[in-house]
Write a structure and sequence with these properties.
This protein is mostly beta strands. The protein has one helix at 4-10; strands spanning 16-21, 27-38, 43-49, 52-57, 64-67.
Amino acid sequence: MTPIKQYIANMFIGKTFHFKCDCIIPIDVIGTVCDTNITQYEIVLLVNVNGKIMHIGLNTPSLVIQEL
């Protein structure tokens, strides 16, 4: 059996998304999820944005995504 957080995280790997967030540090990027990191409280996506890896946590309340 696979833990639910791992199952959800695996659904993102290899796919390209548009991420947008109006938080303390606003983001508006398009990138491909290359890996994930699961902590005790959240799933963190490691997103390749123009050759740079960006960490995006899914516990951000105003985060919206669109699969491309």
